[in-house]
Amino acid sequence: MRSVSSVDFARFFQCTEFGRSFLVGMDSSASGAVSLSVHASRVSMTRKQSRYLSRILRQKHQVKTCRVKRYGVRTLERARSLETFMAPYRHDNILYDPTGVFERASKLLRIAGEIRAELNGAVDKLLWQGDKGALIVVLNQGNASDEGRFGDASPITIETSIRAILSDVCDQKSSDFIRAVRVGYSVPNVAATPIDQQSLTSQDGVLEWLKSKTGTSALAALIGVGAVATAPAQDTTPGRAVSGVNGEWGLIGGSLNGDTAFMTEGALTFPISHQFGARLDGTLGARDGHFLGGAAAHFFWRDPDKGLLGVAGGFANADTNSATAGSSDVGAFVGEGELYLENLTVSGLAGYQFSDGAGNDGFLGRLDFEWYATDDLLLTAGAETNPVHDLLGRVGVEYRPGFDALPGLSFFADGAFGENDFYRAYGGIRLYFGSSTTLKDRHRRDTFRSHLFSTRLTDSVPSVAYGD
Q1: What angle do CA 25, 19, 87 make, to 5 degrees?
Q2: How many Å separate Cα 457 from the centre of its chain?
């Protein structure tokens, strides 16, 4: 079982069934128990998705307590200061902060505390002008002398002290988001967010003025809370066609039209660019003691949230048990595609099949409906037409148990049946090698279910090849 601290949540929330989160935090109790908190807006995560996410995190990771908290936009905008806004989001460790808002906010709160401790009553307000990246320090005029000094400190030396605090808190990188420091005696006529509660104590109406000017809260307008709530749900940047170089290997046994068949199949899938990938696959085996095998190559475009389009070519070869027939070959060139609809994948291909047998050339078409009953249980039903069989039905199932020692292991069964009492029934095991965790993600982000695997092409090999 993987530790939750090792989870790549950026990749995790690419899975559309989980929705989107704007913050994931982890806390540890005195006894060492780990508690996980996932924060999301109602815009980007439904109640059903939140329950499913909580269940997955509890089952597959070392999380005793997992809370998924959903917020309405008005709730996110309700805070009157950065300090009150951050109160529900304080955690021992931040595991996922895609916008960086919470890291910056935490630093601003620490900076505010350091400034007040260092200047000891000299500061009235600490404000944040997010659109300019400016820290505004409003000094307390009641403690200043006629020369505008606080004891031996002038506004200039106070600014120098503040910059030293920024450098210490932000590890010399405060300029990454704090681009300016402004020190003065009055509140500037700009939209700015009160950082701490003490900045709300006076009655000059800064926040009320700000709300009337912007029509929304200080936080939504100035530090991006509105963006935190909605941007992940509106992100239209397509995901990668292939998450990274990955492979699979399968061991198959069963019956092909009454003959015993054993095969091994494998595939290598790799990215070519952000949106394009390629796959090479092949099969070696025997039917009734005679060689059976083949290979295929695919080139495709894919958006893992929408679907796949590609072209492919492949062949299968079968030795016969006839001294005069030798061997038989069948090949195909096709266009293939997949459409992703939540837990349903609609997939198929259309193209031309050719072979060395007379009358065995012509149109090849397949259509499958692949339903993910869970992320690790796939049920398949479909149909095919080819020059050898006018109509074939197809059913299949694949299940990944999620063993810790073999996370890529799955068990599957696959069959086809058609006219003239043709049938094929295969079962076996498959090992996936890649970055994705669930079976669904492996099929949509790593590899995909090849409809031109030579184990399927053998359905179209002319029966004369086996001396029938």
Answers
A1: 30
A2: 33
- Residue 323 confidence (pLDDT): 45
Give the Cα separation of 353 and 294 in Å (integer): 14
In a shared domain, residues 318 and 381: yes
Task: Determine the structural domain holding residue 162 and report its residue range.
Answer: 101-234
Q: Strand order of the sheet with strand 93-96?
A: 65-71, 34-41, 23-28, 93-96
Q: Examine residue 389 and state whether it is found in any structural domain, yes or no.
A: yes
Pairing label, strands 377-385, 307-319: unpaired
3-class secondary-structure state, position 222: helix
Whether 256 contacts 466, CB under 8 Å? no
Domain boundary among 72, 90, 119: 72
Pairwise CA distance, residues 406 & 143, whole Å? 68
Same-domain pairing of 325 and 456: yes
pLDDT number for residue 277: 95
List, as one string, the DSSP characters of 14-41: TSGGG---SEEEEEE-TT--EEEEEEEE
Residues 260 and 298 in one domain: yes
Q: What residues contact residue 319 under an 8 Å CB cut-off, 6+ apart?
A: 290, 291, 292, 326, 327, 465
Entry pTM: 0.53
Residue 385's SS3 state is strand
- Number of separate domains in the chain: 3
User: What does each C-alpha distance from 18 to 244, 304, 464 come to in angstroms?
Assistant: 22, 14, 51
Cα–Cα distance, 288 to 256 (Å, whole number): 9
- Token pair listed for 204: 């000059």
Shared domain check, 420 and 350? yes
In sign, the C-alpha dihedral spanning 153, 154, 158, 161 is: negative
Q: Name every residue whose Cβ is closer than 8 Å to that of residue 321 and which is 6 or more positions away in sequence.
A: 288, 289, 290, 466, 467
Domain assignment of residue 241, yes or no: no
Which helix or strand (DSSP H or E) is residue 44 part of?
A: none
Going along 304-408, which residue ranges are E strands?
307-319, 327-341, 344-355, 362-374, 377-385, 392-399
Residue 96 lies in a domain: no
130 with 67, same domain: the answer is no
* 83: in domain: no
| Below-70 pLDDT ranges, the chain | 1-6, 61-63, 73-78, 142-155, 171-176, 201-238, 320-327, 357-359, 451-468
Alpha carbon distance 419, 359 (integer Å): 17
Pairing of strands 307-319, 327-341: antiparallel
Residue 223 is encoded by which pair of tokens?
Answer: 């530090």
